[in-house]
Design a protein that fits this description.
The structure holds 2 protein chains of 2 kinds. Chain A is of the alpha/beta class. Chain A is built from 5 helices and 5 strands, in the order E-H-E-H-E-H-E-H-E-H. In chain A, strand 3, helix 3 and strand 4 form a beta-alpha-beta unit. Chain A is globular. The relative contact order of chain A is 0.18. Chain B is an alpha+beta fold. In chain B, the strands form 2 sheets. In chain B, strands 2-4-5-7-6 form a 5-stranded mixed sheet. In chain B, strands 1-3 form a two-stranded antiparallel ribbon. In chain B, a hairpin with a 2-residue loop joins strand 4 and strand 5 (about 165-170). The chains are: A alpha/beta, B alpha+beta.
Chain lengths: ~130, ~220
């Protein structure tokens, strides 16, 4: 398995819950990941195309665009970007639809940060540096 | 008997939809609390035992958590009020309380289209009816209005008392010509029949006519 240092991994957190996104980004930055945030569907699309993150943590319910809509659009523009859905939406069907649209995995809020980091590394096919 | 089963089934259906939205909102509150407490933990792990985390960061984290607890409590209070609507078959309730409750319970759906919802209802109008059926009807009408309204516009719920009837107007912008599509689902029609109500469209809105005393 390949290895990458956390500072080489770019993570975009797309969530309209400002406190959640910014605090999660801060915690990832404390662990040396290059984390940044988007607060709407449109911002997510713009930032994803501009900054080409390695991983997108995508909320499903954002005010201007549905997360699945964002996912479908990104499949066309950024086919190599790995997406992990992070949401409070409990519908199994939505999770399945997300996976069918190419999401790597699906996590329910509140999340365990250790588990999220494992999923990020799994999604990128990377060995964990410090387990 | 069949109609009674259908009304109960419709009320349960609305309850499930509201419960799903509430659980989503509560998970978001818990997620913020989880991350905030995790951050304080992270910061504590980075300092020496006798050093301590900067007071400002602790205060900020605690303030964020307090806001989320407060929001979560408000969300649960609304669900609790709605759940208890079914305690008594027929009850007398201030209309303004019912309208505010349904606006709160459908806030997420309104937010999807960037809609603001305003309630204009005198405090002295009371309705006697199957409260849960009335709330289920309002839920259906509000969701239909939110879906059809022009995004980023304002929806007004305006209630007027007229002798033995209450008139509730759902006003907003529905398209550029200001024409309101008359839309009423089968579910809403059944609930209106149960309550003895009627629905009509007028310029810039829908209007619901409800007997003040619709109890059986």
């Amino acid at each position: 398995m390949a290895k990458k240092k956390p500072e080489e991994i770019r993570v975009l957190i797309a969530d309209d819950e400002v406190e959640f996104a910014s605090t999660l980004a801060t915690r990832l930055k404390l662990r040396k990941y290059d984390a940044f945030t988007a607060m709407s569907g449109r911002d997510t699309l713009e930032l994803a195309i501009e900054k080409m993150p390695d991983i997108l943590l995508l909320d499903l319910k954002m005010p201007d665009m549905d997360g699945l809509e964002v996912l479908a659009l990104l499949r066309e523009r950024c086919p190599d970007m790995r997406v992990i859905i992070v949401t409070g939406h409990g519908s199994f069907d939505v999770g399945v639809e997300g996976m069918q649209l190419g999401a790597f995995d699906y996590l329910m809020k509140p999340i365990d940060l250790g588990l999220l980091i494992e999923k990020i590394h799994d999604a990128l096919g990377l060995e964990m540096e410090n387990k | 008997m069949e109609i009674e089963k259908d009304v109960k089934s419709l009320c349960l259906d609305v309850f499930c939809k509201i419960a799903a939205a509430v659980s989503h909102d509560l998970k978001n509150c818990l997620a913020v609390i989880n991350e905030s407490s995790g951050l304080l933990d992270d910061l504590a792990g980075m300092v020496d035992e006798d050093e301590g985390v900067p007071a400002e960061r602790v205060r900020k984290g605690c303030a964020v958590m307090r806001v989320q607890v407060s929001q979560g409590a408000a969300i649960l209070k609304n669900l609790n009020t709605f759940a208890h609507s079914g305690d008594v078959a027929v009850s007398t309730t201030p209309l303004v309380d019912i309208l505010h409750l349904l606006v709160s319970l459908t806030a997420r759906q309104a937010a999807v289209n960037g809609l603001s919802v305003r309630v204009d209802c005198p405090g002295d109008i009371a309705v006697t009816c199957r409260t849960m059926a009335f709330e289920a009807l309002l839920f259906h009408l509000l969701i239909a209005v939110y879906r059809q309204a022009v995004p980023e516009s304002v929806i007004g719920l305006v209630a007027i008392s007229e002798e033995d009837m209450v008139t509730i107007r759902l006003q907003g912008k529905f398209d550029q010509n200001g024409e309101v599509p008359v839309y009423i689902s089968g579910e809403a029609a059944l609930l209106m029949e149960e309550l003895g109500g009627a629905l009509a469209s007028e310029t810039y809105g829908l209007v619901l006519f409800l007997p003040k005393s619709a109890g059986r």
